[in-house]
Backbone:
């Protein structure tokens, strides 16, 4: 896979004696939906945080679209096309829903040292923001205060914010966490629509969502990737069954 | 409606106050009002970083004090006929408002740049402590600065000269201060609704999210901090002129706390809040201190009530009342999220 969008090699991160990320290597092709699964504490969120730049790896390399981003700060990676959602919905509660997404547009529209022109009347920001809200099904809530949204809507909003920057790669940390069946189904349908447009690295516990969406799946246990492959291959992998799917049944 | 009525009333009262005070023989009120406006200006600058940027600075009086000292020291050298600096360039003192006040703003801004560049890398309690520490350092620096009066402070011979304007005239000085407050208010109203203001509010709400979106947040916080420092410096320059005296007390942590109280009482993150806060705070002080020296007994509980029940302060209440809709759309109301 020489044309990989994301190429991670030998990524290692230790917290004291605990190795949260142990020589992880992974590639994601343009447009691929790659699911990352594994039991709690396997290091999935640590891996996402290193790709996003919130944690720096002890060693290893992260290459996005041919550029080494291993040491870049978070915002510089975002500007290179990395979008992200967090495990717990991360929004601007005291701003309107539309403001939230417009800020995401603004992040990619040059600098923000505009001191005079009203940003809320700037169609270059509001137009794309409205379009993105419509895309995730939140158009009717544009003027609501973000804090007033229901949980599922906040996750949709977060996705809209990640999408507004037209990312090449989306890092989604449990986008269906805490959702009921209806909201989960809607989120899966939404992500399905994005398939092909944008590559997605998806951390998810909901196996229905994983098998419905993923082109490939990687399984992480104790900081190590023990398998990567198509959903069918991973499902059949005996080590995966022993280490992860088996445990899941016990739990 | 309430909002417009209050703003219109305040504008009218603000404009006719010197005339009314003179007519009724209560000229001292002009001075009282001037002082309130100067501290409102300081509050406006603090609100930019506190209310819109979420940066709880407990050392804002430092920038205020630096501005005041800048004016006083320049004036001192002018009257003494000694240069302020002889190296690397010779710099004479001045009493001109057109030179000294921008200089005060510039020096305060530079000081804010240094303090901000160091302290903005931290957050929460650490930020509060570091800004307080810087302010205290500066406080003791001026206490020890014997050349300029040290602990005793430094008197000005006269107010700054400003071309045709005689700042020694209370009404003239009042109107100039009022004009500057109006100017800053207008600029701030534009600023907080512009790209920079929205970015600042995003950082206040969720800095991690802002970084993940692609904002280099430190840059915007620092710019706001420097801007706030410059405006606080202007307020300090006005205060030095108003009292024709500066002392380290201008930089005390109590003064920083007073600024926080003004902003919180009036309404964090509202454009007019700090002005309302300054007016209510000092009017209460003025009225109540005639009855008792323990006027804080009334103000304390008022502040507690505001913090508990009106998180966006007195002006937040006014805005909510003006925005109230006939339809039951409670969740749409602006205010604190229930977290």
Residues:
């Amino acid at each position: 896979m020489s044309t990989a969008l994301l190429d991670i090699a030998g990524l290692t991160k230790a917290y004291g004696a605990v190795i949260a990320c142990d020589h992880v290597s992974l590639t994601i092709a343009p447009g691929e939906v790659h699911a990352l699964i594994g039991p709690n504490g396997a290091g999935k969120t640590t891996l996402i945080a290193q790709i996003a730049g919130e944690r720096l790896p002890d060693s290893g390399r992260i290459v996005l679209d041919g550029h080494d981003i291993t040491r870049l700060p978070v915002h510089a990676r975002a500007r290179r096309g990395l979008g992200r959602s967090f495990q717990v919905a991360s929004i601007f509660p005291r701003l309107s829903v539309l403001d939230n997404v417009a800020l995401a547009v603004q992040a990619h529209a040059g600098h923000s040292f505009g001191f005079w022109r009203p940003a809320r009347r700037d169609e270059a920001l509001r137009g794309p923001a409205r379009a993105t809200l419509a895309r995730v099904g939140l158009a009717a809530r544009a003027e609501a205060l973000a804090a007033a949204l229901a949980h599922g809507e906040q996750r949709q909003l977060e996705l809209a914010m990640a999408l507004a920057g037209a990312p090449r790669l989306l890092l989604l940390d449990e986008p269906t966490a805490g959702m009921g069946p209806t909201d989960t189904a809607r989120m899966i349908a939404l992500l399905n629509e994005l398939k092909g447009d944008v590559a997605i690295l998806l951390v998810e516990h909901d196996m229905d969502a994983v098998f419905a969406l993923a082109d490939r799946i990687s399984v992480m246990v104790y900081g190590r990737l023990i398998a990567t492959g198509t959903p069918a291959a991973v499902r059949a992998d005996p080590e995966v069954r022993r280490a992860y799917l088996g445990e899941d049944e016990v739990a | 409606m309430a909002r417009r009525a209050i703003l219109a009333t305040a504008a009218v009262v603000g404009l006719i106050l010197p005339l009314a005070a003179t007519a009724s023989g209560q000229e001292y009120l002009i001075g009282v009002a001037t002082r309130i406006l100067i501290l409102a200006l300081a509050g406006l600058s603090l609100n930019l970083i506190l209310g819109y940027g979420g940066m709880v600075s407990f050392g804002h009086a430092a920038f205020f004090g630096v501005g005041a000292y800048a004016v006083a020291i320049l004036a001192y050298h002018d009257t003494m006929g000694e240069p302020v600096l002889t190296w690397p360039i010779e710099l004479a003192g001045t009493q001109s408002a057109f030179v000294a006040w921008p200089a005060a703003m510039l020096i305060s801004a530079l000081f804010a740049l240094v303090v901000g560049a160091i302290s903005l890398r931290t957050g929460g309690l650490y930020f509060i402590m570091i800004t307080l520490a810087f302010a205290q350092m500066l406080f003791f620096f001026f206490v020890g600065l014997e050349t300029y009066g040290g602990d005793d402070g430094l008197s000005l011979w006269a107010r700054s000269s400003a071309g045709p304007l005689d700042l020694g005239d209370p009404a003239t000085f009042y109107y100039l201060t009022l004009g500057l407050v109006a100017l800053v208010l207008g600029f701030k109203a534009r600023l907080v609704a512009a790209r920079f203001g929205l970015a600042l509010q995003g950082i206040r709400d969720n800095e991690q999210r802002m970084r993940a979106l692609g904002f280099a947040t430190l840059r915007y916080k620092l710019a706001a901090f420097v801007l706030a420092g410059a405006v606080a410096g202007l307020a300090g320059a006005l205060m030095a002129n108003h009292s024709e005296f500066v002392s380290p007390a201008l930089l005390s942590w109590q003064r920083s706390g007073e600024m926080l109280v003004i902003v919180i009482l009036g309404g964090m993150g509202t454009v007019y809040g700090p002005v309302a806060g300054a007016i209510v705070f000092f009017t209460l002080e003025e009225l109540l201190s005639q009855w008792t020296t323990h006027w804080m007994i009334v103000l304390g509980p008022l502040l507690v009530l505001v913090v508990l029940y009106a998180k966006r302060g007195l002006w937040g209440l006014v805005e909510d009342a003006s925005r109230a809709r006939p339809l039951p759309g409670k969740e749409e109301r602006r205010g604190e999220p229930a977290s």
About this structure: Chain B is about 70% helix and 5% strand. Confidence is low (pLDDT under 50) at residues 326-339 of chain B. Residues 155 and 285 of chain B are 25 Å apart (CA to CA).
